[in-house]
Each structure stands twice: as C-alpha cells, then as structure tokens.
Amino acid sequence: MPIARFKVVLLGEGRVGKTSILLRYVKGERVPASDDPPTSPRRDAPHRRYSDRQVSTLQASYLDKRLSLRAGQSASLSIWDTAGQERFHALGPIYYRDADGALLVYDITDFESFQKVRKWVRELRQIVGQEIAITIAGNKVDLESSRAVPEAEALDYAASVGATHVYTSAKLNKGLEDAFAELSERMATRRNETRGPGAAGLPGAKRSSISIVDDPVAPKKKDSCC
Amino acid sequence: MTMRASASKRSTSLQAATIAAPSTTKERLDSLLLSRGLAPSRSQATALVKAGAVLLAATPRRRPGQKLHPDCEIRVAEGSLTRYVSRGGEKLHAALERWPSIARSLAGGGTAADFGASTGGYTDCALKHGARRPSTAWTAIMADEFDVDLNDMKEYLDEPDFDEVEAPAAPSRCASGELPFDGGEGVRGSDGADAAAAFAGRPPDILKARLDASGFGVENVAAAERRLTLEQQRATDSEPDIFADGGELAAPPAPATPPRPPTPPPPAVRGLDDDAGPRRASAFVKKDAPKPSQPSTSAAVFGLYDRSPEADAPTARREAARAKAAADREERRQAEDAAEGSQLSYKEFLTRLMQPSSAELVGHVRTFVLQILGKFEGLEGDARTEALAELPATCAQFFAAAEAHLEKRPEWSALGARGLSSARSALEKYVMSKVGGLAFEAVRNDGRDAELRRRCRALSRFVTPGHLDVKAHLCNEVVLNIARDELRRMDHSRAPADKVDCVVRCASMIFSVLNLARAENSSRKGTSESRAGADDFLPIFIYVVLHADVPRLHSNCDYVEAFHNPTALMSKAGYCFVNLRSAIEFLLTVEASQINMDEDAFAAALAAGEAAVDKGEAAGPRP
Hints:
By secondary structure, chain A is α/β, with parallel strands linked by helices. Chain A has helices at 18-27, 45-51, 92-96, 111-127, 151-160, 176-195, 205-208, 218-223, and strands at residues 4-12, 62-68, 74-81, 101-107, 133-139, 164-167. Helices cover 35% and strands 19% of the residues of chain A. In chain B, strand 2 (54-56) and strand 3 (59-60) form a beta hairpin. In chain B, 49% of the residues are buried. Chain B is an all-alpha fold. Chain B: Keywords: RNA-binding.
C-alpha cells in the first residue's frame, strides 16, 4: 500500500509553543520527562544521543514523521511550522494553501492566543474550505492553575467549527502523539473519500491535475501535443 | 611517490604466479603480512599491497586478497614501510609536495584540521610536517561546516576532553565508512587531487570567501580552485549526451570519465549527492593565527556569540559547539536513513540511462527534448509566446508519463519508492538541463523582477535588522553574506531542483546560526534544549533575502513552481522554498506597522530609497 503523504501546518501566535510541540513530537516518548530538574546537556547526553537521531538543523520548523494509521496504512506527515508574529499573519495562505491538516495552537493561559485561533479557523475555512482537517490544541496544560481560556468555551468553539480539540503539553510531552495520530486519521479519511484509497500517495496530483497515463508508450503520445 | 616509482620499475617483468604446495591452506596476502609482523595493521597491509610495495619473488603483488602459501617468501620493499598511519597520509604528502607553500606554512607551525579523520593518515602526515593541532572550537565550527562528527576527531584536538563525561559509546562512524577513506570514489591517485577534492563539497569561491572572511588564509586556495574548476568542467563535459550523435544511442558512459586525475563530484550533481552521502573535506590548512595574544581561534571570532568570552566561556563554547555538532551528526544520520531506500545519485541515474534496457526511455526523452527544441526553432512573436505558455503543462505531462514508465519497468521499479523518486528527480534534472533555457523564457517576467529588485534595493537602504526584530548578535554579516551567496546561486543553476537546493543551503546556514546561538544561550541558562523555530527563522530570512539582491528572483521562483515536481515541493526543500516565496511576498507588501515604523517615516524613507535607486540605476549599473 502506498504511503499517504500529508502536509500539516502549525499555526498559532508567537510563544504559544509551536516550536516546542514540534520538537517534542519528533522526539516522541523516548525523551525523559522534562519536569525533571533541568539537566546539563552533558548529563543527559546518552538520551540525546538516541532521541536526537531524528532532529536536523531545520527540524524545529520542518518535520517529517512516519506513523501507522488504524487501517494499517502508513502515513507520512510533513509538518510545517509557521511564524506566529502578527506582522506575518498575511503570509499564512502561502503556507497552508495546499495543506491537508492544520494544528492550531493556543496557550491556555493566554486568552488572546485563543482569539487568534478563531481568526485562523475563519481564514482556513474561507481559503481552503472544508478540505482541511483542523485540530485545536490548548497547549501548556502543565500551567492549569493559571488557565485563562475557559474549558467549555474552547470545547464548544471547536465543536462548532468541526474541529477536534485536544490538550497538550510540550513540556510534559502530553497529548502530542494522540493529537497527531487523530489528525492523521481524519486526513486519511478525507482523502480516501475524495479520491479513493488508491490515490493516497500523491499530494501533488491535487494541484496539478496531471493524469498519470498507464500506457507505457505514453511519452510518445505526449509528443503530439508539442 | 617514490615508493610507487620503485614498485613500478620492478613490475616490468611480470611473472606468472607460481604458488607452491596446494596441500596447505593458503592465506590472504594481507593476513600474511599482518601475521608476520610486516605490517602493523590490516589496513596498512592492504595499503602496502596496493602501493605495490609487497614483493613475492621480486614481483609486486597488488591484490591484498591474493591467496598465498603460508610459507612463501614475501618481503616489503625497503623505504615503503609506511611513513604514515594510513595511505591517506601519502596522498596528503603528495599534495604537500605539489603545493610547497602549504607545506611551508605547516612547517612554520600552521594549524591543520582533518575533518573526517578515520585512520588519521592526513592528520599524521600534517603533524609530521610540523603542523599544530587545531583548537577544538575552530574544529567544531569547521566540522559543522562539513558535517563531520566532532566525536570522531577528538583524538586530534587540542582539548580532547570537550566531552570527557561521555566516552564515545559507538565505534567511530567515520571508520565504518561513513566518510569513506577515498571519498567514496575509489582509490585516488597520489597526485594531490585529494587536496582539491577537499574543496569539492562547495563551490570554491564560496569556500574561499568563507575562509577569507573567517580569517583563515589558505594559501594556494586559488590553485586548488583552478584545478577544481578544470575538473568540474571535465566532469560536466563527460556527461553522457544522448543527443550527441543525432541518432544512435551514445555509448555507455563509464569510460567517458577521465580516469586520471580523479574527479571530484561536479557541482551540478551536488543536490542529489548531498542527500546520498556526506561531504568530504580534509586537511585544511590555516596559517598562524594573526593575533598572538589569542593563539587558538575561538568560536567567538566568528561572531556567533553576542558576548566576549567570559570565565565559563570555554565550557559554554564547547557545549555549544558540541550541541551543534550533535545536531548535524543527527542530520547526517537522518540523511543516511533516508538513503537506505537505495536512493539514486544523478551519476548513477545517468549510468542506468545509458544501459540498453533504458533504450526506450532514452528514446522518449530524446524525442521529447528534440521536439521541444525543434518547435521553438525560429518561432517568433505571438506563436512563440503561446507555445511557451504551454510549456509547463507539456513538461509536467511528460514527467508524469515518464514516471509511470519508470514504475512499469522492472529495472527501475526494483529501486523501491525512494529510488524511483530520485530517478524521477534525476530525469527532471536531465531534461531541464536541456530545455531549461526555453523553460525559463516561458516564465520570465522582467517587469516583476525589476519591480522586486527595485523594491528590495529601496527597502534595504533603511530597513535594519531591528525593524524585523532580529537580534543584533545574530546578524553576523559574514555568515549572512555566505547565506546570500548561496541564495544568489539560484540564478546560475539550471534545473529546478538545483535552484531549490540553493534556497535550502541558504536556509540551513541561517538555522545553523540560530541554533548555535540558542544552544549557547540554553546551556548557559541550564535549560535542556532550545531550537530555532519558524518564529525566529522567518524574520532573519527576510533580512537575508532583502539584501541578497538575487537576479531575476521572481522569475526563478516561478520557474521552480512551474517545472519542479510538485511532490518534491512537499518536502523540506519545499518548506525552504515556500519560505522564500513568503519572504518575497512580505517584502513586496510590507507596511510601516509590520516593521515597527511610523507611517510617515516609512513612506518618506521608501520614497527616498526608491528615488535613490532610480537615480543610481540611471547613473549606471550598481557595482
């Protein structure tokens, strides 16, 4: 079965923890819980040696992650971090135009960041439509005591726009695996619905309407058009 | 080399191998050397044999695996007992003979660093020529440049304790062939080409700029460069050309590559090769540090840290360098993982393409390219414009069909998904290198290019890093200029993938700066990790693009989008490319509020900038 490739964009205001989420997700559960007192790089070096395996220079901002879907299919996520500063807001469409999914991150201790999520959702629905699977992630649940976004409001809102709501903590490595796994399932379902299971491996085909001709002598045929 | 010369004299009378007594178990020649104590190690034994220094009945034996009677009389030619711990030393020795000025600077106590040391032949040779060991910090930076694991070099460093707690658990990866002793290209001749090959990973002028800017005077860089350019030229010339004879398939390309001197990988192949394997770099030579007060060049010289060294700075630096080296080590490992699926290098692709079984594909490619070229021959005016407008779709269709063809052919599909996709990329590269001129014409938009350039030039007159919230200490113009150089190469590259590659290299460089600075910060604060995300990257990237003044930037981007495999743009390369798009968009639409400026001040500054640009352009081309 071909591997389904999905593009997921990370959207959210600056400092809500997008980068930490990405970084923590790529390392998975192999990283020792970081509510341990901070260790010097030297002391935790053996862990780094292993878990850093997958981290490249760019990989706090771009990440390839392979995971298995429930149906036994493999999915490959390319997760794109985006700059969260307000001044770059208008650039969003360049990143999410052809995305299959979006993870909208807000900080549960920062109501503004949740308002920003609403803005992203409106935009995504307007520009990409229902095609894109959305997950809203309330990050920093380790700071529950300073919560500023009422839980009911967040959950209701997510339900009203057809998005999944999850709580995450990049710091405690909580909820991340599940959030991405669930998002992947929805993206796969959507793609299978719209294109049939066979077409899953070719994200590019969406944009460029290339028909892949089965006939092995196809290139010769192409000649007639030029 | 002396020992080679003597060996070849003796080899004039080739004897038939008469090996006695088949009754006894025979042994490999190299094992024999080892067991008799004629060579200190197996690798040295092999080196001796290959060098023709091992004689059986006065005849050199050149196959280390030759089975010989355990009692046979073998001897090692005098004077050939290796001077250096491995054959690599001989190569560097030859290079130093060829370029005496480097040898002189070593003898004068110059510093040498061997990146990718496995058995340490280069290092041994350099040290025996009087070189000093390099400072750890310096090595860390350079190691990073060349994707080499610092752990593998510790025994050659002046501060080998940079990592005293963590002993290298795994055997050296270099030794296991990650940085193949011969650069993965087979055994090189000892004619100094290796030194040139050391420069092959990057375009020589970039490297030179980098070294010059960093205060490393590499004597004879120019000589290495000339040689490299020559060889690259030759390598390019030797690319099989299925159009050369106007009809029949060209002969298999294997012997077309000049067997001597060894050819460093040509730059055109870089993009694909980079993914396939690590770059190799060794034996850089640095003249004596200009500042006697600071004998070891510290990382701070590179301006990558915002402070002058403090009491704990060496530790912090070591850790920062270590973190960075680790990061790149991981990246390399990842590249290896990616390579597991038998990725195809461009060269391998071309070799396969020239095999008889690929005749059908070659036929399609030829027909396609010749038809395109033929179609535009003498086509002018509207008809040409129309035909050009169709070109992207035509190419896309062809590539899709070719991809389907590849999937159907067992000899290609056996390569697996990765192999196929790299074959697809290589095919694209090949075809685009033939029709790239026309393809670029199809998307070229001088008006928009000029508009973007004018805008950037005007903005660059007054937009500072501060306007973009880029921290001053990150703005090391030396490094950023290198990043800009990489970006500007976009315009010279031909294939879409190569253009994207330039963007990736530019972005990687910026991320390196960011990560290094953050690693430094976090190790000081005691937080375990910190890496630059998009929030940090985009502003500084915009700043780099703003001042890069890339020729025909807009058209170059359109070209990539129109002719590059859309699937390839879903990857990391695509991420970098989209960031470039995004940076351009920002620069074209930026308003006062977005760069922390007052409306009026911004309008005035922009107008003044534009006026100055127009004036400058009227007066003549910018220097």
